[in-house]
Structure formats: structure tokens, C-alpha cells
Amino acid sequence: MRLGMIGLGRMGSNMVRRLMQAGHECVVFDRSDEAVQAMVEAGAIGAASLDELAAKLPQPRAVWLMVPAAGVDAALGDLAPRLAPGDTLIDGGNSYYVDDVRRAKELEARGLHYIDVGTSGGVFGLERGYCQMIGGEPGPVKRLEPIFAALAPPMASSPRTPGREGKGGTAERGYLHCGGAGAGHFVKMVHNGIEYGLMAAYAEGLSILRHANAGKKAGVIDAETTPLRDPELYSYDFDLADIAEVWRRGSVISSWLLDLTARELLEQPDLAGFAGRVSDSGEGRWTVKAAIDESVPTPVLSAALHQRFSSRGEADFADKLLSAMRHAFGGHLERKE
Amino acid sequence: MRLGMIGLGRMGSNMVRRLMQAGHECVVFDRSDEAVQAMVEAGAIGAASLDELAAKLPQPRAVWLMVPAAGVDAALGDLAPRLAPGDTLIDGGNSYYVDDVRRAKELEARGLHYIDVGTSGGVFGLERGYCQMIGGEPGPVKRLEPIFAALAPPMASSPRTPGREGKGGTAERGYLHCGGAGAGHFVKMVHNGIEYGLMAAYAEGLSILRHANAGKKAGVIDAETTPLRDPELYSYDFDLADIAEVWRRGSVISSWLLDLTARELLEQPDLAGFAGRVSDSGEGRWTVKAAIDESVPTPVLSAALHQRFSSRGEADFADKLLSAMRHAFGGHLERKE
Amino acid sequence: MRLGMIGLGRMGSNMVRRLMQAGHECVVFDRSDEAVQAMVEAGAIGAASLDELAAKLPQPRAVWLMVPAAGVDAALGDLAPRLAPGDTLIDGGNSYYVDDVRRAKELEARGLHYIDVGTSGGVFGLERGYCQMIGGEPGPVKRLEPIFAALAPPMASSPRTPGREGKGGTAERGYLHCGGAGAGHFVKMVHNGIEYGLMAAYAEGLSILRHANAGKKAGVIDAETTPLRDPELYSYDFDLADIAEVWRRGSVISSWLLDLTARELLEQPDLAGFAGRVSDSGEGRWTVKAAIDESVPTPVLSAALHQRFSSRGEADFADKLLSAMRHAFGGHLERKE
Amino acid sequence: MRLGMIGLGRMGSNMVRRLMQAGHECVVFDRSDEAVQAMVEAGAIGAASLDELAAKLPQPRAVWLMVPAAGVDAALGDLAPRLAPGDTLIDGGNSYYVDDVRRAKELEARGLHYIDVGTSGGVFGLERGYCQMIGGEPGPVKRLEPIFAALAPPMASSPRTPGREGKGGTAERGYLHCGGAGAGHFVKMVHNGIEYGLMAAYAEGLSILRHANAGKKAGVIDAETTPLRDPELYSYDFDLADIAEVWRRGSVISSWLLDLTARELLEQPDLAGFAGRVSDSGEGRWTVKAAIDESVPTPVLSAALHQRFSSRGEADFADKLLSAMRHAFGGHLERKE
């Protein structure tokens, strides 16, 4: 089928490529003429304006937005007046599901459908396919299934779950209609929240291995430092790249994140190219807020989030306060370095 | 080669089977004659006593212990006098690495070698192979490579890490000599610590999805309960089995643990067969203690461990104290259920 | 001065009493005639309706609301039409500061002033005085200082902070104008967030002491339980009431919460009267959400909040998932009790 | 009575002063002659050697050690041969209770008594008195009560806990015999663990207040930063010194630590004199390890400990790993500063 695509960054352009490989036609638009031109050369139908994009799409139209979350409302505002009742808008970015709920209502008043699609797969999506979590009305979602199916990874990319044979549905084909407006981004939000926890688990564990030679370092002995009681028990020099690699085969903790970790540690065992200031991009925060609203305990996901804040120096004032208190009651002075 | 195996529980007997499939000979012993008999029928060489086991092994002998951690010292004590200098003992169970360090010293005094092997793979090891993390002296470890190779998963079980071609080593063959005595169980310990974190991340995230319909429940409105400000934002009824399934394909959080989770949720969507009293088997505790000794922050792994304690009701006294304090300063009474 | 008070629950009626003790006049209203009558007997001026309350107050009026947070908007809606420009409304309850910001704007459009006052002191406030954190426009706050001063604890209730002599301000008199609309409840919100952390710290520590005899209990020895390595190190039977008491004198952790804890433990050493289902009343949640918005790491306050959720069984589904995963990869069965 | 004191640092010398003020005699020794001389000038009986100290004490002797934890075993080794059966040694420092258990056994073999005393009070102890948690045999503890009573704060330093009248015991006099060998330091260990949690709770909460103006800062808008949804809700400039001060009077979170915090914030509102590298001195670590041994959930105390590690840069490698993973799956580059 023919789909409009707005936003030709890395994600948007790769999706267009994957769709065209599956035989779909894409009418593409981007604020950058160059980006449009590049996709035209790859086989897409270019549009120099939103009007042209609307004109080149058959009704009922389907337009996929792949723009930064902060730009979605503006894009919808520009696009909606150019569409007709029955057309469908798809937000494939990282919107907060709360915005989806609002947008679906606003667009419904114009007779437009709104679908929110959380996608996972990152820079590997073109090759591996995109896992898609979808929210919105059943009719428009159903109509767009060929698009979702083309973007999704092949079913054979993972072995079949035993007992799945009779269940049907699209989950094992890599896309899922999760529920009404916002459901797709809600599930994607939690997906990312889980991602924070998984990443932190690997990072903390590997850090313990990295420092397993703590006993070999001549410890500074002063009143402000706790000496190791049994330094000989911490005299291992582990090869982290090898350890991550061996865990990839047969262990309980094998995963795609571990695959990537093994690759990074192989390339750069001491990770000297990174400063360790870890960004967080919204979903982790929203996940924890949702947990709080629901009264669901999430000590692990929360700890992962707060450690990201700490990594960026955001704990500095609190840490200074601790030093100030220690100074006040015990006369303790901070150790330098 | 010919290997002695002591302990024919699920793990030990499966290992014997996998070794024999690869052409190795196993002399097997267990306190249960039945267990020995079953393996003899499967092709193993039975031993009715430790003396017989020792007699049936060529020197230098190699004996693999697959007994509960609490029984290893006793087994070593029984076995050592029956061995000769140059023989090697392998502990393939879940020993604390601190014990390995001690045992290696004790056995060295008798001229015996001690190898600690942390294995991961669980009940799937027979079929998938066992990931093996190995500690001990280089010589004996080298000599036993055919055994480790036979137990390990095939290299092709995971795609090759880009850039690995030139590096050599055995990591991508599923087993790794990690360092001296205790190194194998140290790495396995941290492996399990990571496992706790990964499991908790999935469990917490899926629990948020499970309770995403919190807004649909008629909330009890009293002074002790915080009402949801926007209940309509929590009106999703998610199918967790489908969501776990869709994440298995193409998403950043795909993993073997997720594969298993998808299977469990398919079989039993509400998990009613479980009480939620989660055991912890030692390695998670030791991991956090090692982190503390090394001053390595592990907020996520720690939170996962403490939540396991909580799941078993161990927080009860602390929780009662909180209620008591709230009663004291605010006159708050606990809500019943 | 003369103040209107709406809401004569425990907090409201005690405040009226404290104000009258200081020589102020209170015009009181409550949905319950009985409650009004009781305060009239204590010396207050009763009002049978909001109209009567408004009529009995001199302009510019000042009316203090001491009603449940969920009822404040309704109360403001009833009251505002009966007031005149220049009058001031005070919300002394536990409102979310976000609501204060909105209300102040709405009331400003009618020429009314809105002051938010977070109060701490609980059931002891009548006797000890109420710590007050105040938000709103400077003029009305200034005008109401005699009220705040009367409700506040005496300056001598705590020894003077060294160096405070020259600083001025009202902080050491027990009330503080913290900033514009919402500032009072923002500070109170964080106050309660801190309270959650403090309470959890005591509760966890005392729980460690409570279980310091773990080594004396005949441990169940099975594969699902980690035995204590050195049980003789955990053979203390501590008297928690005595320990809390001794900490009250001279220790770094003495506090008012500890005073209350010592009292509760004295009355009921095993706390058998409590079930351990700990409520959370909103401020703790809002505190953590504010921290997330600000990117401020709050691992401790978050952990305290999530443990409260856990205490009420909200972790059950996640815990069951952990058991399900353990069953899947390791064949582990849950221990019963 | 007459007591020997070894170790005349700040703690030891202040204790000698407080004891002498109460009429006790102290025979003092320190490796520094100057330190001895200073105490002699203050009224103590100097000893130039351990032999002299032993000679100047009547039997059964009582010698209090106030030396760094790392030096206690050496000091006991030097001292024990100079003592006679029935004499008592007191360790008043911050020993690990595990060492107490061992030492008590070793000294018992020589007929010597060993008492462990955890003391809290810091640099204020001379003036306020020392809270003392005591472990050891009942007889020697009983005999030393006059010493403990002199060091303790006066009973009137805190108001009596209601209902305490009939209970008896010494807890409300500021010292407590908690149990056998190690009990004193066990309770002190947990005391410090609680202290970590309390301190973190205040520090985190005040940090939220400190950053409550986050909405006023021109945010960097890029794909790696989550913008505030409602920046106007974070536009407060709070005076932390005033807020800490107001909380000191009448609030639920008043405490001695808050008193000190108010003082520090008054002197140095931005805490610029501190770097925020927070030491941890052993007890916090041991507390969490004890909790793990006992299976007692301590999410809050653990989070406080791990944040201290983080404050010293110990999370760096884990943080770099997170950045590496994000780079690997999403092509994310770290933001510079």
C-alpha cells in the first residue's frame, strides 16, 4: 500500500527503506530537501510540501510521523487541515502516552484517526526489523497491518514459544495492537523502563568484576577509609570482554543487550571514550511515575533511573550536605581524591 | 577422555549424558544406587564406592563434583585420601568463591589440583549446553578442555561478535578460564547477581502493565488512600503474554529470560499457581557483599535482592514499626486489607 | 485578630483552641453542627452557614480551611462567591502544590488572595505548636503573621542555632513564608518525603536488631535457602524498647520520631497490634515525582516509598513473576511458608 | 573509681575530662608524650608506659582503649600480658562486632574480661555526654557502671518517655548493657547504619528544594534531554537555611541531625566548601551485610550506602558501560557537560 512518511532522520529513512523492500510505496516529506532527495533516489515518491504529500496519497490516507516528540503537536497541527475525514495519522516516535490520549480526542473531533506506535530496534531496525507496540482504534490499526507486518522482524527471528501454536494474533510476528489510544506508547514506555533496569544490572555486575582486584591496590589507610578485611579475596584481574562473550552462550543472562555489551567491551576494554554521563530520554521517568500512580513497587527501575541522574552530577548538592553533616557532628574532613 | 562424576542429581546426570554424547567416558557415583544404575543404563561406568571410582579412573585422575554447596567440603574430605598427587578435583556446583580459595590451598598441600566451575544453563543445559566460568591453575584447566568443550554450547548458538575473529580464546566457545582459584565461582556469583537485577526489571515492568487498569477500579476514598488524579489515564487491560511475545522480536530488551517469561505468561496469565515467595540462593547475597567490599555502587542489584527478602514477609517487623510511628504522630490507623 | 475556620476535625479544632489561647477570635463552621457546638462551648463564635461565617468576619476577611485535600476545591467554590475583593483564603491542609498554583490564579481573578500553609505537628500540635510552611503573596502573608505566630511553637522549644542572632526572619519562630503560591505545600511535601526516609531508616535498623538472633533458629536446610555461614554471630536477643530509649540521649540519631518509636516499642514490644500495611498519603509520591522532574537523584526517598507499596502486597504480581521465571529456568519450586 | 585510658585523641581526651569532672581518676597513656602531658595538666595521672599504667591501677584493673579500630588488636596484644586475671579491657572505639566476639574468647582464656562499648555523640560528647551501647559479661559491666554513668548524658537531656516510670534499667540514663560480647558494637553498627539513612533522607529532600527552580533555567533542548513539561511549576527559590530552621520547631522531622544541618546551611548556604565526596567508615557497610545475613530487607539503608560510593566516583565504570550500550543500540552520543 501507499504510506506517507514525515521525518526522514535515521529512523524515518530506514523505515521507508524497509517498507519499500517489502513492496510498499512511500510518499516522503522532510524539512530538509536533501533528505527527501536521498529517499527519492532510493525509490520513494518525494513531496516538496505537506500539500503535495496529501495530494499524492489515496484516500483514506495514512501518514506516519517520525519526528522528535517535541515536534509532534506542531506537525499534527500543520497536517490535520490538509487531510480528510477517515484519514489516519500515525505517531511512530517516542511520545508520552498522555499526549496520545489528548491528541486522539482532538483529531477525532475532525474525523481523523490517530495511532500511536512505539517502536524498538534502534539503529539495527532496518536490518532486523522493528518491534512495534500499537495503540488506537481497531479499524484503522487493522487496515494498516500490511505496513506493520513489513516493518516487523520475521517471525523466525526468534524460536517459537512452546504452546503458542493455537493462540493466533500478531505478537509473534513482531507487532501488537495493545489497546486504545496511548496503549502503544504506554507499552513502549514500560519497555524502556525495563531497558534501564536491564542495562544497570549488567553495568553494576561488570563493574564488580572490574574492581575484583581491589585487594591488590595499596589502600590508603586513614580514619575516613574502611580497609578491606581480606584483600587476598579481591585479587582477580578479569577480562570483561571475554566474560561478556562467554555469557552469550548458554547462560541464563544472555540477551541482545549483552551481545552489544560484548561488542563494546571488545572494541574498548576500558571504555575510555565515554565520560559516564548517562542521558535519560523520558520513558524511564514516565515509567516510574506511572508505577507511583498505580502504587506498584518498582525499587529496581527507580534505582536505575536515579543512578542515571547521579551519573550526571545531579547528586552533588545532596552529597555536599552529607559531608557538611559529617563535619558538623564528627569533625570529619573530606578526603581529597 | 575419562572423567569421574560424583552427584547424579538433575544437573550431574544431564552433564554425564552430554559428555557421553560427545564421546567421553564417565565413571559415576552417587549416594543413591538407583541414580548410579540409571546412568549405567545410559552408558556410564558405575562405581559402588569412592574407592571403586578412584580405581576406575586413569591417573592423573579428574573428578567432577556436582553436589549441593553445603556438601562439597565433606565430599572433598572423603575423596582426597583416595586420590594421588597430580589428580584434579572439579567443583561444578554453586560454591562461594571464598571456599574455593581455601580449598585450593588445602588440596595443594596434598599435591591435588582444584578447579572451580560456575555453570549456567539450568534445566536446559543438556540440550543447549552449559556456559562455564572456570577458576584454577592453568595446567589442569588446559588438560580438561575437552570436557569443558563438550559441555559447552556450540559456538554457532549465538552470532559471532563483530571483531572477534582475531582474538582467539575460548570465550565464544562457551567456556572461559577466568583466573586463579575462585575466579570461576566469582564470575558465576556476579552472573547470578545480574540475573536478579534482570529478573526484577522484567517483573516490575510487567507489573506496571498489569496494573495499568488501576483507574477503572472504584477507589476506596479515605484519608489513608491517595486517589489517582487522572484515572482515565490508567484504563488499559493489557495482554501480558502477547506483550512479552512481541518484545521477543526485534526489541532492545529481548533475552532468554524474556523467552521464558513469555512462555510462563502464556501458560498461566495470572500466575495463580505461584505464591510470590521468592527464594534467593546465595549468589545474589554474595554479589552485593562483594560490591560493598569493593565500594562499587550496586543500587539496582541491591534493590532486587532486598525485594526478594520482602517477598517472603521479611519486612513485616519494619512495616509494623512504620504503622506504629504513623499511629504515634498522626493518630493514623491502618487500613484493613 | 478574628479568623474564620472551616473544618473542625482534630486538626482544625485543635488549631482553633490554640488560637483562642493566644487571644484570637475564631468564627467556626463545619458540616457537623455538633462540631461547631463543641467549639462554641470552648469559646469560639459559631456559624451555622458559610453566609453567617462571612457576615461575622470583618473585612478584609481571612478564612482558614482545614478540610481533606479532596474537599478543598469544593469548599473554595462554595466560599468564594460569599467573599469580597481583598479577602484571603488559607488552605492549611495537605493539598498538592500544583493545585495551589491553579487556585491562586483562579481566585486572583476574583480579587481574592490565596495562601497555602503546610503544617506539621500532628496530634501533638495543640500542645507543642504547629510548624508552618507558607506560600502566597507577601502582603496577605504579612497581615496574617499574628495567626501564624500563635499557632507556631515557642522559639524556645529548640535551642537557638549558633550564628542565627543576626539573621532575623521568622524561621526560628516556627513559621516561614517560603515563596509564592504553592511554596508552602511544596516545602511541606518535601518535609513528608523526608519523613518517609527517616521512618524507614529507623524501621530497617530496628528490624536488623530484631532479627539479630537469626543464628539461634534451627534453619531449614534445603536447596532454596541460604544457610548462615556463622550462625553464632547472630545470637543476640535485643530489647528494642531499651535500645530506642538509650539512643534518645546523646546519640547522633536522636529525634522526635525516635522519641515516638521508643514510646511505641515500650507499649508493645512486638507490635502485634499492627499488620504492617503502611499507607502513604500523597506527599511521598509527589516528592519523588518532583525529584524526577528536577532530575534530582532520590534513591533513598524512592526506596522508602516503594517499600510502603510493597508492605501492602502491591508487589505480589512481580514476585509471582520471579517465581515463575525461577521455575522456568531452574525448575525451582517455591518454598511453602 | 580509677580507670586506665589508652589513646588520647579527641575522643579519648574528652572522655577523660568528662570522667574527671564526675570525680573519677584516670591513668592515661598515649604514644604521644605531649598528649599525656596535656591530660596530666588537666588533672589526670600520666603513665609513660603500659607497665606504668598497669602499675598505677588497682586490681581488678579496668583499662579503656580509645584507639583506631585497626589498632585495637595490637593494643590488646601489648596490654594483656601486663594484666592479671579478673582485669577488664574496654574497647570504646568503632570495632566490628565480629572482632569483639573473637577477642572476648581469646582474652577469656587468659582470665581477662572484655567489654565492647559503642559510643555516639561525636565532638559534642564532652559537653552533652556520650550515648553508650555496651556488650560483655554482666559482672564486669555492672562493676563499671559508675564510669558509664559519668560518661552518659544526664537523664533530663530528653523528656521522659511516657510509661517508662516503672520499667527501670539504665537506658534512660544514656547507657545500656545490650548483651554478650559484641552486642555493644552490633547496636552501634546499626545505629550508624540508621544514621546513613537519616542523613540521606535530609540531603535528598533538601536537594529537591534546592533545585525547585529548575523551570527557570533555560533548558538545553536536544534529543538527549527530557524537557520539563510544566516549567512554571518549578520556579521556587527556597532559602534552605530558613527551611531547615523552621523544621526544627514543631515538625515531625525535627532531630539533632537537623539541628546540625540548619547550622551548616546557615554558615554556608551553597556548601561550596565541600566537594561532596562522602566517606563511609565501616559501620554502614557492616550494617547492610548483617541485614543480608539475616534476610532483613533494608532497601533504604542500602541505597544510602551505595549513594555514598557513587559520590566518590565509584560508579564511573558502570556509568560508562551504560553510555556504551546506549551508543551501541541507539547511536546515542553522550552530552558534554
Question: Any key phrases for this structure?
Answer:
homotetramer; 337 residues; alpha/beta; 14 helices; 8 strands
Structure characterization notes:
Chains A, B, C, D: Pathway: Carbohydrate degradation; pentose phosphate pathway. Four copies of one chain form a homotetramer. The first copy, chain A, has 14 helices and eight strands. By secondary structure, chain A is of the alpha/beta class. Chain A is elongated. Helices cover 45% and strands 11% of the residues of chain A. An eight-stranded mixed sheet of chain A has the order 3-2-1-4-5-6-7-8, sandwiched between helices. Chains in contact: A-B, A-C, A-D, B-C, B-D, C-D. The interface between A and B is large, with 109 and 108 residues.
**Order of strands, widest sheet of chain A:** 3-2-1-4-5-6-7-8
Order of helices and strands of chain A: EHEHEHEHEHEHEHHEHHHHHH
Shape of chain A: elongated
Largest sheet of chain A: 8 strands, mixed
What gyration radius of chain A follows from the Cα positions, in whole Å?
25 Å
The total of beta strands of chain A comes to: 8
Oligomer: homotetramer
Quick summary:
The structure is a homotetramer of 337-residue chains. The first copy, chain A, has 14 helices and 8 strands.
List the helices and strands and how they pair.
The structure is a homotetramer of 337-residue chains.
Chain A: E1 2-6, H1 10-21, E2 25-29, H2 33-41, E3 45-46, H3 50-55, E4 62-65, H4 72-79, E5 88-91, H5 97-108, E6 113-120, H6 125-128, E7 131-135, H7 138-143, H8 145-151, E8 175-179, H9 183-210, H10 240-247, H11 256-267, H12 283-294, H13 299-311, H14 316-330
Parallel strand pairs in A: 1-2, 1-4, 2-3, 4-5, 5-6, 7-8
Antiparallel strand pairs in A: 6-7
Helix pairs in contact in A: 9-12, 9-13, 10-11
